[in-house]
From TrEMBL:
InterPro entries: OxRdtase_Mopterin-bd_dom, OxRdtase_Mopterin-bd_sf. Pfam families: Oxidored_molyb (PF00174). This is Oxidoreductase molybdopterin-binding domain-containing protein. Residues 1-20 form the signal peptide. Transmembrane segments: none annotated. Residues 57-127 form the Oxidoreductase molybdopterin-binding domain. It comes from Litoreibacter albidus. Keywords: Signal.
Amino acid sequence: MLKAFLLSAILTVFASSATAQTLLTIEHDGVSVEYDLEELEALPQTKYVSGNPFFDGEQEYSGPLLREIFKDAGLLEQDSVSMRAINEYTINFPVADASKFDVVVATRINGKLMSVRDKGPLWVMYPFSHHEELSDPVYKGRTVWQLVKITTQ
């Protein structure tokens, strides 16, 4: 009985820490703001079906709009930010893109949470199928998968 109680307690601790895992850190003016999945899902969400340069066919991408994350973190007045992925891939991202297009920080593809293996848990995704100008290769480079950090420059 004691073993069952201890096992239950340990599993509860691990389950609680897993749900509160930081997925995205934003550093701005010397302050760090961390977002877990629940906090990201509390922001206004969107979903759309679109193709992308990395997959054949169209997929449904859903998650918070990037501009809502920028708004929440006080970044809308910035010209650009630096985005970094798990593998240290880093790009300069123009903040205006978040308002010009419905750029989503996808937490799900086809309704399923993304794992690191699936290019998640966060993937910056443009609605490629909705705007012809997004066929320019520059936008492909801005689709940061496994996003972990946004920093002001």
